[in-house]
């Protein structure tokens, strides 16, 4: 089966990991510090906080944004459900707002209609790697006294109007799961231009340790053994073993991006001009880091096309089932029909294989199978 996504690991990655294993620091060491500098470099931020997954990054970001009981978080249903569920862990209530018909990203007008004086965060996802409309969403969030969070699990290395993903929103999260744009096996990161927020993120992922002595509540010399915990935290520390893999992968990020763009261009060319198909939208000013190739089939035969491709050995996926359709949300009063644009998008969508080591002949085989299926 041709997978829909997979990591690209080479001998230099294996060497980088082995070098850490031969050294003194398996965790909280220099490879982690280097990886955080590298991620901050890509994001254009003063710092980065590496964590154990994209989900941990979201939880850490909501905690660092001081989301708490009674708050509302406005988010998209066309995402992996962790974008929403991590805010629930902080006690927030989720309000789903609909997406734009072209990109599948959170629609600023829908978000504006959904915010209230209880909204603490507006959270958009860079669906498939295409950046959210950050300027419009920032205005919606800030007008409501809220922060904009960008779930950039799909889009590290992308940019909008020349500004890198990571510098577009108040706080941005990444995932380094194997299918994503670069991998640390499991891993993620939080970036922001707000140093106080980064400080809270860094304490949260380290079980709430307050390292900065100037912030200690206790006054005077408490002894060399002293430490403080002022807020709740969890252990979401990314080990150096994995951070080293991340830093080495980052050296190939540009190459990964070029190849993902080339695969996208090849699919676009091969599937263009067919009435029942919609190739992914690409807005002016956006320089996406294509993580997925989300094709839409408009004639109601998504199920048949999906089964046909799977039976032909093509590992297609659907990204995503609308989050509010999940039983957890359905059992709490969220209803089908609440976000019709996202729901229609989801019912038409099929993610074709997309990863840097995908061969042109495999792309052509997928195109041929799709064209045959729709009779083009
Ligand atoms: C993958 C993903 C996550 C979660 O990342 P993990 O590293 O798998 O925990 C969150 N949001 C989106 C949009 C994702 O695609």
Instruction: Please count the helical segments.
Output: 13
Ligand types? pyridoxal-5'-phosphate
- Runs with pLDDT <50, length 5+? none
Proportion of helical residues: 25-40%
Corresponding CATH architecture of the largest domain: 3-Layer(aba) Sandwich
Account of the protein in words:
Strand 6 and strand 7 form a beta hairpin. The chain folds into two domains: 11-250, 3-Layer(aba) Sandwich (Aspartate Aminotransferase, domain 2), CATH 3.40.640; 253-374, Aspartate Aminotransferase, domain 1. Helix 3 packs across helix 4, helix 3 crosses helix 7 (195-204) and helix 5 (108-114) packs parallel to helix 6. The protein is an alpha/beta fold and 376 residues long. The protein has helices at 11-21, 30-43, 54-64, 82-89, 108-114, 134-143, 195-204, 240-250, 253-271, 302-311, 327-330, 340-348, 360-374, and strands at 47-51, 72-75, 93-96, 119-125, 147-151, 159-160, 163-164, 171-175, 188-192, 209-210, 228-229, 277-278, 286-287, 293-297, 349-352. The structure holds pyridoxal-5'-phosphate (PLP). Pyridoxal-5'-phosphate is lined by residues 53-55, 79-80, 82-83, 125, 151, 153-154, 175, 177, 188.
Short description:
The chain has 13 helices and 15 strands.
Descriptors:
three-stranded antiparallel β-sheet; 376 residues; 37% helix; single chain; 2 domains; alpha/beta; DegT/StrS_aminotransferase; transferase; binds pyridoxal-5'-phosphate; Aspartate Aminotransferase, domain 1; Aspartate Aminotransferase, domain 2; globular
